[in-house]
């Protein structure tokens, strides 16, 4: 089967990732490039691995995580759907079998909270991994005086710890938010849809999603 390492070496995929970030830079978005996709890929794989899924499903989750934002190279709007089609065709050219590339396409096409939801194990792992990546390292804008709410919330998160508890069957997102930069309420204003999407994705995997902010359990 096609592996994550082969995907990482694919020149076309690399150019799409780079182009996507160039476009998002011009639009003033947070980082969606190699740092982000590396974290999402790793977490998606770890979720399924910890829950005892087969190696093939784990590898597919890692690939979906690595490729999930390539649609931003087309346009930020509807990037999940355009990215899913791009990924399907690239993986087809690479020789991945139809069932596996279809599962990855479904996962990528459903990772955006505005249009998607968990539809298979890979998509559920991708959603949990993607929506948990909130941290000041994602903020590209260095001028604090021009921060929008997304910049402020991400920059306010000084520590984000994502853990998977196999015994209690839950994933835990533990955040430290500097309230001098952004109040906790702003986090929920921006991320409520993503939080609810994560809860449903966890439920799809028969686990629980737990959110802790500044040592207070909120979900």
Can you put this structure into words, describing what you see?
- Helix 7 (121-131) runs antiparallel to helix 9.
- Helix content is 55%, strand content 11%.
- It has nine helices and four strands, in the order ααααααααββαββ.
- It is of the alpha+beta class.
- The termini are far apart.
Set down the secondary structure blueprint.
Blueprint: H1 4-9, H2 11-27, H3 34-50, H4 55-67, H5 79-94, H6 98-109, H7 121-131, H8 149-156, E1 157-165, E2 170-177, H9 184-204, E3 208-213, E4 216-217
Parallel strand pairs: 2-3
Antiparallel strand pairs: 1-2, 3-4
Helix pairs in contact: 3-4, 3-7, 4-6, 4-7, 5-6, 6-7, 7-9, 8-9
Number of strands: 4
Strand order of the largest sheet: 1-2-3-4
The N- and C-terminal alpha carbons lie at a distance of 38 Å
Strand percent estimate: 5-15%
Give Rg in angstroms: 17 Å
Give the H and E element order: HHHHHHHHEEHEE
The helix fraction, in percent, is 55-70%
Low-confidence stretches: none
Helix/strand/pairing category: alpha+beta
Question: Count of helices?
Answer: 9
Averaged pLDDT, please? Answer: 96
CATH topology: Hypothetical protein af1432
Number of domains: 1
The major β-sheet equals: 4 strands, mixed
Shape label: globular
**CATH top level assignment:** Mainly Alpha
Let me know the CATH homologous superfamily: Hypothetical protein af1432
CATH architectural category = Orthogonal Bundle
């Amino acid at each position: 089967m096609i592996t994550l390492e082969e995907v990482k070496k694919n020149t076309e995929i690399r150019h799409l990732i780079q182009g996507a970030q160039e476009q998002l830079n011009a639009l003033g978005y947070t980082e969606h490039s190699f740092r982000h996709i590396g974290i999402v890929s790793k977490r998606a794989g770890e979720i399924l691995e910890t829950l005892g899924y087969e190696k093939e499903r784990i590898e597919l989750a890692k690939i979906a995580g690595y490729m999930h934002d390539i649609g931003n190279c087309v346009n930020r709007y509807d990037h999940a759907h355009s990215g899913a089609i791009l990924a399907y065709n690239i993986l087809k050219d690479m020789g991945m079998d139809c069932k596996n590339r279809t599962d990855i396409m479904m996962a990528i096409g459903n990772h955006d909270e505005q249009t998607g939801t968990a539809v298979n194990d890979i998509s559920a792992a991708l959603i949990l991994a993607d929506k948990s990546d909130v941290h000041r390292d994602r903020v590209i804008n260095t001028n604090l005086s021009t921060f929008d709410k997304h910049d402020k919330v991400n920059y306010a998160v000084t520590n984000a710890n994502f853990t998977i508890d196999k015994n209690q069957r839950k994933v835990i997102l533990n955040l430290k938010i500097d309230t001098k930069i952004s109040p906790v309420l702003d986090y929920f204003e921006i991320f409520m849809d993503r939080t609810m999407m994560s809860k449903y994705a966890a439920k799809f995997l028969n686990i629980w999603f737990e959110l802790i902010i500044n040592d207070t359990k909120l979900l």
